[in-house]
Amino acid sequence: DSGCGSWLLEPQSTNLVTQSEDFSDAYWTKNGSTFTSNAIISPDGTLNADKFIEDTSIGNHNIYSETINVNLGSAYTLSLYVKKGERSRFRLDGGYRLSLDATFDLNTLVVTGNGTIESFSDGWYKLSATGIGEVSSAGTNVYFYILNDLGVQSYEGNGTSGLYIWGAQTEQQSFATSYIPTNGAASTRLQDI
Fold first, then answer.
1. In angstroms, rounded to a whole number, what is the distance separating the alpha carbons of residues 107 and 98?
2. How far apart are CA 25 and CA 143, in angstroms?
3. pLDDT in tens, 98-112
């Protein structure tokens, strides 16, 4: 109420996703989906956000990461910047060893599951979800799903509809911190002092 500014200090954190922006890279396995690289301006102001497009198959339209190691009982948060295109519903999933699952409607801003949604400029949203590692020192994959207009995960795609994504991050935190870009290796941001 005084009108004075304040500091927002963050803890040290590591982005365990080793390819956070180039979703056409082999780090991301495509299932019922394709990508157009550098399709629109991302939240960092650069032409480096990809379009995530459903193909014409019947089934899931998703991508998933290479293996990420998680620890039993530790909290992990998965986050991603998403902008709606022809599709506006999306799902984050932590795979078989991370109890993380949330669906998002970018039209109504309704979140189902253990997720949160934060609005950014130019129609971008930061989607995040937190879960707990369920197996000691085990690997898991993180998944991103396009959902159809009814919120259904398995459906027949049309080959052109999709949405835009950028800035994938998985970190051993109980909340999402600011974005830590990666390009081939995990990256750590030191604690603010």
1. 28
2. 15
3. 999 999 999 999 999
